[in-house]
């Protein structure tokens, strides 16, 4: 049994395997690295978007279980994508804002946890 998660490892791995994840980041290498880490965890269904518009389209078409968003994307920022996604009826996905660049104080408050 996995002490941290409170569920057997096999059950946890099976749960991860069935997750649909969207990785939205303007940096191709960051998307590739994130995809590799998610694949190593056993996640099989991973979609990518390079900008905010593509992320919103993917959210509407794929309905991911989890989204990993770059906060500083072109066209629509991660913050703007979050605002759209949190609108009633758009998506019920969990979202993890991410960034490798300095963020405004309001964004830093959101960074450490998934919402």
SSE inventory with pairings:
Blueprint: H1 9-17, E1 20-24, H2 28-40, E2 45-49, H3 52-62, E3 66-70, H4 78-85, E4 94-98, H5 105-108
Q: Determine the CATH superfamily.
A: Response regulator
Strand arrangement within the widest β-sheet reads 2-1-3-4
The 3D shape can be described as globular
Average of the residue pLDDT scores: 78
CATH architecture: 3-Layer(aba) Sandwich
Distance between the termini: 27 Å
**How many H/I helical runs?**
5
What is the total tally of β strands? 4
Topology as a string of helices (H) and strands (E): HEHEHEHEH
Query: What is the SS-derived class?
Result: alpha/beta
| Major sheet description | 4 strands, parallel
Strand coverage percent? 15-25%
Account of the protein in words:
The protein is an alpha/beta fold and 115 residues long. It has a single domain, classed as 3-Layer(aba) Sandwich (Rossmann fold). It has five helices and four strands, in the order H-E-H-E-H-E-H-E-H. A four-stranded parallel sheet has the order 2-1-3-4, with helices on both faces. Helix 2 links the parallel strand 1 and strand 2. Helix 3 runs parallel beside helix 4. The radius of gyration is 14 Å and the shape is globular.
The gist of it:
39% of the residues lie in helices and 17% in strands. By secondary structure, the protein is α/β, with parallel strands linked by helices. Helix 4 (78-85) links the parallel strand 3 and strand 4 (94-98).
Features:
5 helices; four-stranded parallel beta sheet; 4 strands; globular; 39% helix; Rossmann fold; 115 residues; alpha/beta
């Amino acid at each position: 049994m996995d002490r941290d998660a409170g569920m057997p490892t096999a059950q946890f791995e099976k749960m991860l395997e069935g997750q649909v994840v969207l990785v939205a980041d303007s940096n191709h290498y960051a998307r590739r690295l994130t995809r590799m880490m998610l694949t190593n965890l056993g996640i099989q269904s991973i979609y990518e978007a390079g900008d905010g518009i593509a992320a919103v389209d993917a959210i509407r078409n794929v309905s991911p279980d989890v989204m990993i968003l770059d906060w500083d994307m072109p066209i629509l920022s991660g913050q703007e994508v979050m605002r759209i996604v949190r609108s009633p009826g758009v998506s019920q996905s969990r979202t993890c804002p991410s960034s490798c660049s300095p963020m405004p104080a309001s964004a830093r408050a959101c960074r450490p946890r998934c919402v």
